[in-house]
Specification:
This protein is mainly beta. The chain has one domain: Jelly Rolls, CATH 2.60.120. About 0% of the residues lie in helices and about 35% in strands. The strands form three sheets. Strands 1, 5, 9, 10, 11, 12, 14, 15, 17 and 18 form a ten-stranded mixed beta sheet that branches. A six-stranded antiparallel beta sheet has the order 8-7-6-13-4-16, with no helix packed on it. A two-stranded antiparallel ribbon has the order 2-3. Strand 14 and strand 15 form a beta hairpin. The protein is globular and about 55 Å long. The termini are far apart. This is Neprosin PEP catalytic domain-containing protein. Pfam families: Neprosin (PF03080). It comes from Linum tenue.
Length: about 325
């Protein structure tokens, strides 16, 4: 099964220029033997935890009220036993049929039982009616042994009772025999060294209405439109960036890193980046967000974000991240 059409940029040549600075190879551990799963089957990563274990999936908590910043940057009351902290950019105020970005891949130090991730949020609705489609890479100290892995997530009720990671519940339908969600990535960027990235695109198929996920141009699968109410038509906001959970160990801020573990101000080869940001319009064309991006950070002294100047290689892009616990973050 394939989508009826694919989004295209007005200028497809941009992302290939100056390509020597980047490596876009997507290599997972199971690719070492040079084989994929047979056609008609899909790879499934083995997990050491029960997929219904809420401790392994902190977005599913439903405990005491905790005031945090939601995906749109608003302070709201959710139901979580730990706080979420972000350094990201948002695009809102329009009708979006999808989004794309190239995510620099790192392996941030993560304190147990927390996670650190880089992802894209496709958003509609708010409060209990919040719908999100999320995809990126993460280090989950509970489920993946502190390795960096690809993941998806979705919710149709503001993270209250619907949705899950990857294939842990009915929802996301995988079609690819080449990419295993939850499986480790081998290509990790090095501080002041070689940089690796992966391109992630989510778009609404105008024929079926389903939301399709592409990673490195591979159709990984789709979220059926019937899963959603607010996202059954279009998204109203797109976010790109980093997120961590903070359990405040020993009464202090967590030492969990975001991105490379270095602040956005350090820039190229030192701070994590997301580049070639774009949104999909009603004609299935990828458009540049230009000057419409808004930076959001929960605690700039812990994790920061910096918008870069638009150019032909990086397009719309930004740096983000930080070390967590430090002299300025406690």
């Amino acid at each position: 099964m394939k989508p009826g059409s694919y989004p295209r940029r007005v200028e497809e040549t941009r992302s290939s220029s100056n390509s020597s600075n980047f490596s876009e190879l997507l290599i997972q551990n199971w690719h070492k033997n040079g084989k994929y799963c047979p056609e008609g089957t899909i790879p499934i990563a083995r997990s050491k935890t029960n997929p219904r274990n809420r401790k392994a999936h902190p977005k599913a908590f439903s405990l005491d009220d905790y005031v945090i910043v939601d995906a749109l940057g608003h302070e709201v009351s959710f139901f979580h036993e730990q706080s979420y902290e972000h350094a990201q950019v948002t695009l809102k105020g329009g009708s979006y049929h999808g989004a794309t970005g190239k995510f620099n891949v790192w392996n941030p130090v993560t304190f147990h039982p927390e996670f650190s991730l880089a992802q894209m949020w496709v958003i509609a609705g708010d409060g209990a009616d919040l719908n999100t489609i999320e995809a990126g890479w993460m280090v989950n100290s509970v489920t993946n042994n502190f390795n960096t892995s690809l993941f998806t997530f979705w919710t149709s009720d503001g993270y209250r009772s619907t949705g899950c990671y990857n294939l842990d519940c009915p929802g996301f339908v995988q079609t690819s025999n080449k990419i295993a969600l939850g499986m480790h990535l081998n290509m990790i960027s090095q501080y002041n060294g070689q940089q690796f990235e992966t391109k992630i695109t989510v778009h609404k198929d105008p024929t079926s209405g389903n939301w399709w996920l592409q990673i490195q141009g591979e159709d990984v699968g789709y979220w059926p439109s019937a899963l959603f109410k607010a996202l059954s038509s279009t998204a109203t906001a797109i976010n790109w960036g980093g997120e961590i959970t903070n359990t405040n160990p020993d009464g202090r801020h967590t030492p969990t890193q975001m991105g490379s573990g270095h602040f956005a101000s350090e820039g190229w080869k030192k701070a994590a980046f997301v580049r070639n940001l774009g949104y999909v319009d009603e004609s299935c064309t990828i458009r540049d967000p230009d000057h419409d991006l808004i930076p959001l950070t929960t605690r700039a002294e812990c994790y920061s974000v910096h918008l870069g100047n638009f150019d032909q290689t990086y397009g719309a892009h930004f740096y983000y991240g930080g070390p967590g616990l430090s002299l300025s973050c406690h």
